[in-house]
Amino acid sequence: MADNADLERIAILAPKLGAITRELLFDDIWQSDILGGRERSLITLATLTALGRVEQLPFHLALAHRNGLSREELAEAFTHLAFYTGWPAAVSALSRLAEREEQPCL
Q1: pTM for this prediction
Q2: What is the Cα–Cα distance from 101 to 14, expressed in whole angstroms?
């Protein structure tokens, strides 16, 4: 599920955190069939946006695209979030979406 290069970077810096990230978060939590990948991506993006964790958005935007969310759906989600997380948080998230579109598809 997660990009191996990102997990490898985490594992090099903090081996235990890398193992927990891979085994618990991506191999267990993200694989549960109670929520689908689209829902998990929307929840994750909303949380990252609300908390202002824009450094994590590029990875999760790419994952959201792989989980079937279109650019229009993501833009609509960030527009909706502006009213609940605040304008600066939503605009920052939209900036990351624009940056992602400038890069080749993952």
Answers
A1: 0.83
A2: 30
| Domains present along the chain, CATH in parentheses | 1-31 (no CATH), 36-106 (1.20.1290.10)
Residue identified by tokens 């624009």 is: 98
Q: How far apart are CA 59 and CA 44, in angstroms?
A: 11
| Average confidence (pLDDT) over 23-35 | 95
Amino acid identity for residue 67 in this structure = N
Q: Dig out the tokens for 88 from the structure.
A: 């600066």
Cα(17)–Cα(25) distance, integer angstroms:
10
Looking up tokens 């939590």, which residue turns up?
29
* Cβ-based neighbour number of residue 13 at 10 Å: 9
